[in-house]
Design a protein that fits this description.
about 280 residues; alpha+beta; 5-stranded antiparallel β-sheet; 4-stranded antiparallel β-sheet; 11 strands
């Protein structure tokens, strides 16, 4: 189930067909359902659905509708909801003892400015939208003028989510992070993502360079704990090496509909095959 065909969706369908499955790509934008719709009526009785929508809200609502019919969806609604909202995700990780960057939440302009100016977390910090992907809206902030500009932009757009402020400490790290893909709670592959020209953002979609990363015991343990904290499934766990903490790893994000074309280029693991196998096993359970 998709709303934009990317390389990942093509890889998943190709691998599913190679494994002998009857595979189909379904455009969520064309889907129509009602309270009377049934799984057999959609041709999904006994099917395994991989929800791959780019839109968080579209994917979340499609998942809710399908699960209400008894269709097996990977990832489950509760996992998608937690991972798609950075505040919900961070609270789950923190509650389960997963190390994360120190993060503050504010619910008004004044409270956000007070957190920034009061030294808790203070500058430098990172402001992130609570819902968003590909690094959009993630802004490093080093002074009051920059913070003022961000708050002003939020007031101009003034969507409901603009009133929720997610302020995170600036972790002193190398110009890279680590992306780990977990399937059923197991870390199956990992890569470093190095930002172009030593920049702040490390998204492959923005030009970051992937390179192989060996899955150490620390990475494996942390990825498993992060997966368990949000409810498991197929996830992308993003970690940073905290220099101030002696190089210890902290988890700064867990992704629901994880992209993997960059990681597939630097690992020998067949990532789409393992994803398809997991989704099929969930449907058969």
């Amino acid at each position: 189930m998709y709303d934009r065909i990317r390389k990942e969706e093509k890889m998943l369908r190709s691998e599913a067909e190679a494994m002998g499955h009857d595979a189909a790509a379904v455009d969520a934008k064309a889907a129509r359902m009602s309270t009377d719709t049934t799984a057999p009526g959609l041709g999904l009785d006994g099917a395994a659905v991989l929800e791959r929508c780019v839109s968080y809200y579209r994917g979340l609502h499609v998942t809710a509708a399908l699960e209400s019919m008894g269709v097996s969806v990977t990832n489950r609604f509760e996992v998608a909801e937690r991972c798609g909202n950075k505040m919900f995700m961070t609270l789950r990780l923190n509650r389960r003892g997963v190390p994360t960057p120190r993060t503050h939440f504010a619910f008004s302009r004044d409270a956000a400015m007070e957190a920034a100016e009061g030294g808790d977390p203070g500058y430098p910090l990172v402001v992130k939208p609570v819902v968003g992907s590909w690094g959009r809206g993630v802004i490093p902030v080093g002074d009051r003028d920059t913070m003022d500009a961000i708050l002003e932009m939020r007031e101009l757009s003034d969507t409901p989510l603009d009133r929720i402020y997610y302020l995170q400490e600036m972790v002193e790290r190398p110009p890279r992070d680590i992306r780990v893909i977990t399937v059923g709670g197991r870390a199956i592959a990992a890569m470093y993502r190095e930002s172009p020209d030593g920049g702040f953002k490390t998204n492959v979609a923005l030009g970051a360079e992937p390179s192989p990363c060996r899955i150490t015991g620390e990475i494996e343990d942390l990825a498993g704990k992060a997966s368990e904290a949000v409810g498991g499934g197929i996830l992308g766990v993003d970690m940073m090496e905290d220099r101030a903490g002696g190089g210890r790893l902290v988890v700064h994000e867990v992704n629901n509909t994880v992209e993997f074309r960059g990681l597939s280029s630097v690992t020998s693991r067949n990532i789409p095959r393992e994803m398809v196998e997991f989704a099929a096993s969930e449907a058969a359970a």
